[in-house]
Design goal:
The complex is a heterodimer of chains A (204) and B (96). Chain A is mainly α. Chain A has one domain (29-189). Helix content of chain A is 72%, strand content 1%. Chain A has helices at 8-23, 31-52, 65-82, 88-111, 115-136, 139-155, 163-190, and one strand at 85-86. Chain A is elongated. Chain B is α+β, with helices and mostly antiparallel strands. Chain B has a single domain (12-95), classed as Winged helix-like DNA-binding domain superfamily/Winged helix DNA-binding domain (Arc Repressor Mutant, subunit A, Orthogonal Bundle). In chain B, 55% of the residues lie in helices and 20% in strands. Chain B contains 4 helices and 3 strands, in the order H-E-H-H-E-E-H. Chain B has a 3-stranded antiparallel β-sheet with strand order 1-3-2. The longest helix of chain B has 21 residues, at 75-95. Classes of the chains: A mainly alpha (204), B alpha+beta (96). At the A-B interface, helix 1, strand 1 and helix 4 of A face helix 1, strand 1, helix 2, helix 3 and strand 2 of B. Strand 1 (85-86) of chain A pairs antiparallel with strand 1 of chain B. Chain B: Residues 13-92 form the Winged helix DNA-binding domain. Chain B: It comes from Ilyomonas limi. Chain B: InterPro entries: WH-like_DNA-bd_sf, WH_DNA-bd_dom, WH_DNA-bd_sf.
Chain lengths: 204, 96
């Protein structure tokens, strides 16, 4: 880009182009979503198996989410370091999911993992997914958000051990499938030369 | 009576940098360089001018043993950018 004379039209065009370029930045490998999704999926299946009496554990399987939380935080920190740009959208999404997990953890600590509380978690997941879809304009998340609301509403009439199967289904829809979509998009984007996240060429 | 366009912003590369930074929280130097297609030397000079005007904050640190520069627009920068766009719109309205 050289320092040629700017007309008013040129200035506005340049502003529009640069804003469009900056908003198009995307860096999300989908790894954290995959880690969470798989853990919630297996915890739900274990909870179902325990409730059905197929197996016994000395603790509630959902406690397995605690060590996974630290693993996920480590992955998140590593990914944040690789980002060349921090967008307002990323920040908003992070706050939404942080708020979601805090609410779920606090509710689980006080109310326990009862069938009613699982219904509440399903509604919270639906809400977080829908909002994420609206902010990122990711249609998949919007549709899944609505679908999860239907599943959550259905779970009111399914207050038995099968509610854990609904939770496993939601884990697949909200975390596991999007993580593969994000991964595919991430790999495709990183194949484009010059789009890697290395900070080589730094001169300042 | 029209206001004069801010001379700090009325330069192609500086305006491009400010337009990029207005839409994000912060951006690395390499990202700005890639999007503006500017040379590292020229971009460094223009970024320095924006910093001196108080329009952006520049943070230099090490990331994975490499020097890394991050730029972020300031409140003063946002105000100047908004005024610049408003003035541009006034000019365009008169031309119509």
């Amino acid at each position: 880009m050289n320092q040629e004379e700017l007309s008013t039209e040129k200035s506005l065009k340049l502003i529009n182009r640069m804003i469009y370029e900056a908003r198009g930045y995307f860096y999300e490998s989908g790894l954290s979503a995959l880690v969470y999704g798989i853990t919630i999926f297996f915890c739900s299946l274990l909870a179902y198996a325990m409730a059905k009496g197929f197996m016994q554990l000395a603790f509630t399987p959902f406690w397995l989410l605690v060590p996974v939380f630290f693993v996920q935080a480590f992955i998140q920190m590593r990914e944040e370091k690789k980002k060349k740009v921090k967008t307002f959208t990323d920040e908003t999404i992070d706050y939404i999911w942080m708020g979601y997990f805090l609410t779920v953890i606090i509710a689980a600590c006080f109310a326990g993992i009862t069938y009613k509380s699982v219904t509440v978690f399903l509604f919270l997941t639906a809400y977080a997914s829908f909002i994420t879809g609206m902010i990122t304009k990711f249609t998949y998340h919007k549709i899944v958000g609505v679908l999860c609301m239907v599943i959550a509403a259905y779970s009111f009439y399914q207050q038995d051990e099968t509610i854990f199967l609904l939770l496993a289904l939601v884990a697949i829809l909200v975390w596991i499938i999007p993580s593969f979509i994000l991964r595919a998009y991430f790999n495709k984007q990183n194949k484009i030369p010059g789009n890697d996240s290395l900070s080589a060429g730094e001169s300042m | 009576m029209f206001k004069d366009l801010d001379p700090i912003l009325h330069s192609q590369l500086r305006l491009a940098v400010m337009s990029l930074l207005i839409s994000v929280k912060e951006a690395e130097f390499t990202f700005i360089k890639e999007k503006t297609n500017a040379t590292a030397g020229n971009l460094s000079v223009q970024v320095q001018k924006l910093k001196e005007a108080g329009y952006i904050d520049v943070v230099k640190e090490f990331k994975d043993n490499y020097p890394n520069t991050t730029c972020k627009i300031t409140k003063k920068g946002i105000k100047a950018f908004e005024e610049y766009v408003n003035t541009l719109q006034q000019y365009l309205n008169v031309k119509k």
